[in-house]
Every structure is written in C-alpha cells, then in structure tokens.
Amino acid sequence: MRHLLGVIFLVVFFSSVSNAQIDTLGTNSAYLQSARLEEFLGKVQIKQDSRITDMLLRHSQINQKRNGTDGFRLEIFFSSDTKAREKAARVRNEFNLVFPDIASYMLFQTPNFKVRIGDFRNKSEALKTKAYIASKYPNAFIVKDMIRFPELYPESVEQSEEQQ
C-alpha cells in the first residue's frame, strides 16, 4: 500500500511538472517570440505635446549660436598692470613655444588680461594637463569657461585616411 501511494505521488508530481513546460502562448521558437514582440512594439504610439518638439528645436538652435560648450580651462596668467596686455602676449607666446600641442587663448575681462589654455570637457582632463605643465606654470588653476567643440577627427586621422 505504501509503495502504491508512492508511485501515485510520483506520477502526479511528474505530470504536473511536465504541464508547467507547456507553451501556452503557442510560440515554439525564439523567432516567433521576436516576431510577436516586433508586432507588439509596432503598435506602440508615442503621444507628446508639440511644445516638447519646439523646445528641442530651440535648444538645438541656441547651441548652434553659442559656438562652443561648457567646459574647463587652465588659467596661467592674469594681470591688470599698465603693461598687462604685453605681458599676457609674452606669456602666451612662451607657452606656445614650450607646449605647441595645447591651445592657448588671451582674453580681456575688465580689468584683467588673462591667458587660458586648453579645451577640457571635464576636470580630470584639466588636472592631467595641470600636472603636465606644473614644472613651468606651478600657479595654474582650473576655471570654468566656454570651450571650443572637440575635434571629432583629428588631423592625424585625416592624413592617414588620405594616404590610403
């Protein structure tokens, strides 16, 4: 009797386990599942206010007019002396001779003439360059500034493509 109950229990248990694996959706392969998913996604409609599209368009136009993006630069010189313009030009020229691969900019913000270098998208890039130039410009510091858009294709890549 005990063996009969054990056999009946095993038969019922295995039949319920096998029913758990039956495909109730009627999809027997991954292809059919992906086809049904694509069919479902094809029916999704996105409804949004037209003002969102207008705001995205305005945002795009503003960015095109700015001619740059927010970023960081290193300021290596500032002065408001009577000969500040000449000093700033001299510092910029000296910098360009020592570090020709880093862009430099001279600007005037009342009452100071300033020399800033680099176009860094984040502070970590600026910190690396600050460490690189620290021997020559130990008092350089990081400032937020409007930077030029980074080059997507540097000249070295363009030249190698032309040679091929």
Structure commentary:
The structure is a single chain. The chain has 164 residues and is an alpha+beta fold. It has a domain at 68-147: Sporulation related repeat (Alpha-Beta Plaits), CATH 3.30.70. 51% of the residues lie in helices and 20% in strands. It contains 6 helices and 4 strands. The protein has helices at 2-20, 30-42, 50-66, 84-98, 123-133, 155-163; strands at residues 69-79, 104-109, 112-120, 141-147. A 4-stranded antiparallel beta sheet has the order 2-3-1-4. β2 (104-109) and β3 (112-120) form a beta hairpin. The protein is elongated, with a radius of gyration of 33 Å. The relative contact order is 0.12.
Q: What is the topological layout?
A:
Blueprint: H1 2-20, H2 30-42, H3 50-66, E1 69-79, H4 84-98, E2 104-109, E3 112-120, H5 123-133, E4 141-147, H6 155-163
Give a quick rundown of the structure.
The chain has 164 residues and is α+β, with helices and mostly antiparallel strands. The chain has helices at 2-20, 30-42, 50-66, 84-98, 123-133, 155-163, and strands at 69-79, 104-109, 112-120, 141-147.
